[in-house]
Write a structure and sequence with these properties.
The protein is an alpha+beta fold. The chain contains 2 helices and 11 strands. The termini are far apart.
Length: about 220
């Protein structure tokens, strides 16, 4: 009887954790088929992304906790006309996956697992040896309830999907800053399936949430 009660409590805890995570999704994106990339007018101004001060912050969650980290860009640019973004493209250096909530061997171990540093873990997450870069290309800019939304093709592990997320852009002199709200993607849309309960239904409570929270902070200077 005691064992049955313990199993019941464990099951309830897992369900409660899953429901809570679903309810906490921030700006949940819906990945759809890739769309045509927009071209800016010839008169548009170009802003080149400063890789040293631009960063993508990420958060991955599981029933017993979460991990946080960053990824850097290798290059990127935005084009504007009359102060409004017209187009843009960015290349993400997957070799720069960084874990910020751990130190020492634990930090190195998780970073290696995410990158697929060993033969065993090579394709668990991002298989950086095979796919050293990810990218994002703007396909449109829209406005919803007074908020700018950037639409674009996100390519990870060679899989290209269109997503949309809210962002704020400001220009002072020759410098533009662009900051997104925290938004959520489903990693399995890009074939990142390791320990996904939606893919592997028999893993019990040993799963990692499909959702990854992202926040992009860019600084770019007029070319």
């Amino acid at each position: 009887m005691k064992t049955k009660l313990m199993n019941l409590f464990a099951f309830i805890a897992i369900i409660a954790s899953t429901v809570a995570c679903k309810g906490d999704k921030k700006n949940d994106t819906e990945a759809s088929a890739a769309e045509e990339v927009v071209e800016a007018p010839a008169t548009a101004e170009t802003y080149v992304v400063d890789n040293a001060t631009s960063v993508i912050e990420w958060t991955g969650k599981k029933p017993v906790g979460q991990h946080t980290g960053t990824i850097s860009l290798s290059k990127g640019s935005l084009k504007t006309l009359d102060g409004k973004i017209q187009s843009g493209s960015f290349v993400i250096d997957m070799n720069t996956i960084n874990v910020t909530d751990l130190e020492g061997d634990e930090k190195a171990g998780l970073e290696g697992h995410l990158k697929g540093a060993s033969e065993e873990s090579q394709d668990h997450f991002f298989n950086v040896a095979k796919f050293p870069q990810a990218s994002f290309d703007v396909t449109g800019i829209s406005e919803k309830e007074g908020k700018m939304y950037i639409e674009g093709n996100l390519t990870i592990k060679g899989i290209k999907k269109n997503i949309s997320f809210p962002a704020t852009a400001n220009t002072e002199g020759d410098v533009m800053t662009l900051t997104t709200d925290i938004f959520t993607i489903n990693r399995t849309d890009w074939g990142v399936n390791y320990a996904s309960k939606s893919i592997f239904t028999d893993i019990g409570d040993k799963f990692i949430n499909d959702d990854i929270e992202l926040k992009i902070s860019l600084k770019a200077k007029k070319a």
